[in-house]
Amino acid sequence: MITGKKLVGLLLIAVSGLIACTTERGESQVESKEKIVLDQKKVKDRIRVNYDAKNLDLYLNDHLNASNVDWRWSHMVSNNNMPDTIGVEYYEDISQEHFLFNEEETVPFLSCVTVKNRLVEFSVVVIFQLPDRESKTIEALMDSAWKFPYLKEDAVRNQILTNRKWQSTRDNYEEVISLEFAEEGGIYDRLSYRIRDTRVLRDDIH
User: Fold this and answer.
1) What percent of the chain shows pLDDT beyond 70?
2) pTM listed for this prediction
3) What are phi and psi of 104, to 5 degrees?
C-alpha cells in the first residue's frame, strides 16, 4: 500500500504534469475565446455527465455551482485576472476520492470549461502504472475504474482493448474515453473521459 508521503509525491507529479498539459492546451484556447458562441435557445436541456454521477451530480448546461464539485479557478489556463462569469472560463478540482489500482493510489484530476458560468465541457483524468500492456491487465484496470460506468459495457471495453479509445457522438453532445500508455521514458499511464456540448461553437479549441 502506498504511504502518505509517497501519495503526496504522486499527487504533486500528477498535478504538475496535468497542469502543464492543460496550460499548453489553454494557450490556444484563450486565444480563441472571442470565437466561442453559446446559443442560449438551444441549451435549455441538461446533459448528464457519466462519471461518478451519483456523487458528483454533474450536468452540462448547469450552472457551475449546481453540482457537488468544489471547482477552483484554473488561473494557469485562464487569460483573466479573475474568474470570467460572462465569457469563457476554466476550472479544476483535485479533491475527489483517490483512484486505486495495483495497490497504488492517485488523485483524479477534474476540469471543465464554462460559458457564462455554465458547463459546456467536462473531463477527468486518472493516472496509474500498468505493470504490462496485456489485455488481462487492461481489463483489470477497467474493472477498477468503477466511476466510469461505460467501462461496464462490453462494446466500450472492446473498443478500449482494440483501439484504446471509445467515442460516441449524439445530436447535441460528444463523449470520449481514452487509454494512453506512458511514452518512452515516462512513468504514468492515463485513463480519461471527456464530454462536451457540440452545440457550442468553438473554433480551434481542440
Assistant:
1) 76
2) 0.79
3) -125, 130
CA distance 28 to 113: 14
How far is Cα 34 from Cα 25, in angstroms, rounded to an integer? 16
CA distance between the termini of the chain: 38
Q: Determine contact, residues 123/177, Cβ cutoff 8 Å.
A: no
CB atoms within 10 A of CB 103: 7
Q: What are 127-173's pLDDT values in tens digits?
A: 999 999 999 999 999 999 999 999 999 999 999 999 999 999 998 99
Q: How many residues make up the chain in this entry?
A: 206
Choose among 175, 149, 178: nearest CA to 60.
Answer: 175
Q: Strand pairing partners for 114?
A: 89, 119
Over the stretch 37-84, which tens digit does the pLDDT of each residue have?
A: 554 444 458 899 999 999 999 999 999 989 899 999 999 999 888 988
Q: Closest Cα to residue 193, out of 128, 122, 133? A: 122
The DSSP secondary structure of 77-88, one letter per residue, reads T--SSS--SSSE
Sign of CA dihedral 175, 177, 183, 188: positive
Q: What are phi and psi of 123, to 5 degrees?
A: -145, 155
Q: Are 108 and 88 spatial neighbours (Cβ–Cβ below 8 Å)?
A: no
For 95, residues 6+ apart whose C-beta sits below 8 A from its C-beta are 70
CB 149 within 8 A of CB 53: yes
The answer to whether 185 and 176 have CB atoms below 8 angstroms apart is no
